[in-house]
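Record 1 of the preview.
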Amino acid sequence: MAGSMKNVLGSLQNSLNNKPYTLSQSFLNVFKKGSGFCDFDFSLKDGTVKGIALIDPKFDPPIRIMNYGNETFSRDYIKNSLKKAMELREKLSNDKVIDIGPKSAYRLVNDGSDGLSGLTVDVFADYLQITTFSDHWHPHVRFISEYLLNETGKKGIYWKISTKDQQISKFYLGEGYELDQTNQTTLIIEENGMKSYIDLLDSKSTGFYLEQRQNRQIISDLFKGRNGGSILNLFAHTCSFSMAPCVNGHKIQTYNIDESIKNFKIAERNFKLNGLDTNYHKFSQKDVFTQLEHLKSKSTRFDVIVLDPPVRTKGNKFGLFTTKDSYRDLLELSIPLLNPGGFIAAFVNPQSVSESKWLRQIGVNNDLQNNENENENENNNSNNNCNNNNNNNRKQFRIPGDDNLKNDLNEISQLNIKNAKFSNFTKNILPFVKLPKFKAVQYFDQTPDFNVRKGDESIALQLKGVLLKNKVDYSKTKYYSHKQDK
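->
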């Protein structure tokens, strides 16, 4: 038994050297508590490591490191963490990175990275929503609510419980917003001029994805300088990607596909709230995969296609879809519906599949490195609309390193295999197959108010994506004339 504990402590030493913010179940026995908030002080071979952890066996992994240092868990610690979170958002606002005005919506506390693991706080105009992912936070919600109401001056608090055993959302403290005669929400937020209804009593979704704020603007800017355009919005939710360009004055038509009639009722209500004519926008409550095949048979084409699928879903004929294994298939189904020179905006939750594996799966290479030097024979006047205002904000696009993956690929490349059936693991490390006729021109991230501290990406990072542009061969389009060869 002593030898076993010695091994565990040795493994803990190796793990803590990198200051991780999650630990596996194998380390539960070295903490004083088997569950709850725990102050730890480990005397290890390389020195003492102190901090605060939240231990919840319902988590995976069950140990979340909230903070390293001499602080202990207390109301003062909670208050100081909330204060730091508010100061960070105020700084982002002063730097004009986010809007924290009276009608805005943003994340005030992000799970983990603001030092309060298992807790988020979102702002929706005059109201706050606290979400708890662990029962251990429940005794502290009253204190947190009273502190936030006093510090922010907001009207009321809504509390969402999101654990494995319970999914509820309710009004909690202060003043609640009114419901209309049909029992629908009257709470409205505004983002870059776009108004949206928010439902804080729905335990599944408020009807609006805060983390996509800057990405909605990027999609909208693709239509700058154009007389019109079209969007195919897949897994459209409440269609905010379709609505944003219209609110910004772009005359476009949209085709939105989602299986939820509730989402589309919210979408239609939002379009009317913004004074937009829904006759130019199709809301198709259908299975996405089946509808893609139908649109292909109709030779329908779009300028921009948005892919934001759930981690896991089923198609009537397609079968099981997962972002981990089937994203390339979704891309292949979508590409025939894209106009020459068009864009595909693809998003993924990196908690379901690592960024490196996802990029390999969809066939995206390190295209942005060569963008500045690339001279393509394209008609830039009609198709080079990739948000000129965002050129300076482009990040260096790269596939994150994975040394184990590289070793596996080298080993496979040395094998003389002609015909074989591969396991799912082997499929994930097969040689890279580039997506033909596309280049990556923009890298998508979640908004900066969704704070992510280094080492806590597995919990705090919820969104990644890439904007792909079709590389046009104009000799095969109606825009090409043989006179150009003379």
